[in-house]
Design a protein that fits this description.
heterodimer; A: two-stranded antiparallel sheet; 37% helix; 16% strand; B: alpha+beta; 5 helices; 6 strands
């Protein structure tokens, strides 16, 4: 058995095997735990491995099956979560040293509870940028998470552990959060699928907030079917999340194979064709060709949207931490503290202008979707950067990397659109991602396009060949 | 007239040091004795304009003795002959956790009763937006992070520009999630 065969299982196949008693949940979970044990010393995805609880929960799934009960659609699927989601019995770190002093969470976040009800087995918590304020998962307290495709490079962030744990094959499914790109950036850098759903569609209850105006929870996986199953399991109204959407539930797994006939697909031009290194536009062209997308569309006011998202992020993010910023600034990660302090001083005129602009921009975006069902754009302005790289090249200008890796993702999450990062990977290169964007509540469309690209072999998320340096 | 006669400079330096010690320990008696006892004595403080020894004394007695400590730098002493001198300093003073950068000038004359400060002026360098906002928010910015925070605010200003240039209709409301 080659390494790839050993790891190439996805959540849907695992659940099918476990449900059909071809193997036990315990066997599957044990295998995941031993992969984590072998690989995580190098990659540093996990901040906690819940070995004993995981094995006990796997046993419970096996007992259910033995008793003839339905173990759920994710029976025996090992999964892990960004450490800003509450896991009963674990302290929710949110990547920080300060939160490590807090008592353990008493109950699971809603998203985790729903996956567990469907039979999935939680195996641990994953590394992130401190308080989710970053795009690289270079965390001073808990170390850098390395990119499984090239361990000298970052995994992206802020959900870096979530992307790298899937890309390396340690687990088939993880959860992360996306405020300005924190699911799409690491899934692009690590070459996996990552779904940022419509704002409010997956409950954030039990998640440590970063920016309440934009925070989303979403899944990472190596197949569109796995993304669909996870989404189907988690989405839907939750009274304990004040922004939870009352939109009726709409399971997507039955729809993802229905193809792209009749979909009007356009490529975002202007800003989205300029603000990056030349190599990031290639996968967008490849995907557009495969989808027969010949039209382009101009997303209006992108620069202002990015500005507004940046301002709201700085203000809301900093305000949440004001008490700690006042008395213990040196307990924050040195790579985020200056941004937090600066964010606490932004004038209210800027913040309110940003919030009002968001309403105006939302209207313009909805108008755009009257003539297109899907918009394509690159996910990041560059492939995964080297660890510690201070700047990235954007349109011929060197810009600080941390605040700028999200320039393509930030203007879109700003108005809560559903977006799938579709990984495009050619062996010998670094993975890149394409954002497949639709109107609010049209997760069905982005997953249909993703599944179609996957079927053609254009979108692919193979297990990273472990630890090979890529030039 | 001899400029900066070492003996005179040494004398003024010692007096200047004693004044500083008395100031930060709020020793009103010593401070009062340092000033010229005359209606022509003058002291412009940061917020107060005091004409004559009586107004200066009244101010000293009413002053709240909190956060008086200050760090002096760039002390400069120039003496003219053996009876006149000007001392200037810059200082940093933390008041209520907020950092202030100030300057002080004193004019000294040797009178029959000895060296006296005949005129003094203290001012604060106008605060940057960062310091002012930090003061309003009650958020001390540690010295080692000041430059980084300043750069971040500058960068944020550049990023905010396209947003601030947008014209929004007066009817455009923010969309907060709030359901009473």
């Amino acid at each position: 058995m080659t390494l790839n065969q050993r790891f190439s299982e996805d959540a849907v196949s695992i659940a099918a095997d476990v449900r059909a008693r071809r193997r036990s949940a315990k066997e599957v979970v044990q295998a995941a735990l031993s992969r984590i044990h072998e690989m995580d010393a190098v990659l540093n995805c996990f901040t906690a491995v819940t070995r004993h609880i995981a094995l006990a929960e796997a046993d419970a799934v096996d007992r259910k099956i033995a008793a003839g009960q339905d173990p759920g659609p994710l029976a025996g699927v090992p999964f892990a979560v960004k450490n800003l989601l509450d896991v009963a019995g674990l302290t929710t770190l949110a990547g920080s040293k300060i939160q490590a002093e807090k008592p353990p969470a008493v109950k699971d976040a809603t998203s985790i509870a729903r996956l567990k009800e469907a039979g999935a087995v939680l195996v641990g918590a994953l590394n992130m940028d401190e308080y989710a304020y970053g795009f690289t998962t270079e965390n001073t307290h808990y170390g850098v998470t390395r990119n499984p495709h090239d361990i000298e490079r970052v995994a992206g962030g802020s959900s870096g552990g979530s992307a790298a744990a899937v890309a390396s094959g340690m687990v088939p499914l993880t959860l992360g959060s996306d405020t300005n790109g924190s699911i799409r950036v690491p899934s692009a850098f690590c070459g996996v699928f990552g779904l940022k759903p419509t704002f409010g569609r997956i409950s954030r209850a039990g998640g440590f907030l970063f920016v309440e105006s934009f925070d989303h929870i979403g899944p990472f996986a190596r197949s569109v079917a796995d993304i669909a199953v996870a989404y189907d399991t988690m989405h839907g109204y939750d009274a304990s999340d004040p922004v939870s959407s009352k939109q009726p539930r709409q399971p997507l797994l039955p729809e993802i194979g229905t193809g792209i006939d009749g979909l009007r697909i356009a490529v975002a031009d202007g800003y989205f064709m300029q603000m990056g290194s030349p190599d990031v536009f290639e996968p967008v062209e490849t995907v557009a060709r495969a989808l027969g997308a010949t039209k382009t569309v101009t997303i209006p006011d992108v620069q202002a949207a990015r500005s507004a998202a940046y301002i709201i992020t700085a203000c809301e993010g900093s305000n949440r931490h004001l008490p700690d910023l006042r008395i213990r600034p040196f307990d924050f990660d040195p790579v985020v503290i200056e941004r937090f302090l600066a964010g606490a001083l932004i004038p209210s005129a800027w913040y309110l202008q940003a919030q009002r602009f968001r309403s105006a921009y939302r209207k313009k975006m909805l108008k755009l979707f009257e003539s297109a069902d899907i918009i394509l754009a690159p996910s990041t302005p560059c492939p995964a950067i080297r660890i510690g790289e201070p700047t990235i090249q954007v349109n011929g200008v060197a810009l600080p990397s941390r605040p700028n890796i999200g320039i393509f993702t930030q203007p879109l999450s700003f108005v809560g659109l559903p977006i799938l990062n579709v990984p495009v990977f050619r062996p010998g290169t670094l993975p890149l991602g394409v954002q497949v964007i639709a109107a609010p509540n049209r997760e069905d469309l982005v997953l249909r396009v993703g599944a179609y690209l996957e079927k053609l072999g254009i979108a692919n998320a193979p297990i990273a060949a472990p630890h090979v340096g890529v030039a | 007239m001899k400029l900066n006669d070492p003996a005179v400079v040494a004398e003024i330096t010692a007096l200047h040091d004693r004044y500083e010690t008395a100031l930060v320990s709020n020793d009103v008696e010593i401070l009062t004795a340092f000033f010229w006892d005359s209606p022509h004595a003058l002291r412009f403080g940061v917020a107060e304009s005091l004409y004559g020894a009586e107004e200066i004394l009244a101010f000293r007695q009413a002053r709240a003795a909190v956060d008086l400590a200050r760090k002096i730098f760039k002390t400069k002493i120039v003496t003219f002959g053996d009876d006149s001198a000007i001392t200037t300093i810059e200082f940093l003073r933390i008041v209520g956790g907020i950092r202030h950068h100030g300057r002080q000038t004193q004019v000294w004359r040797k009178l029959p009763e000895g060296w006296k400060i005949v005129s003094a002026h203290v001012s604060l360098v106008p605060q940057s937006f960062m310091d002012h906002a930090a003061q309003q928010v009650g958020l001390p910015i540690p010295d080692s992070l000041r430059e980084g925070v300043r750069i971040n605010l500058e960068r944020t200003k550049v990023i905010a520009k396209p947003l601030l240039e947008m014209t929004l209709s007066a009817a455009t409301e923010a969309a907060p999630v709030f359901e009473p």
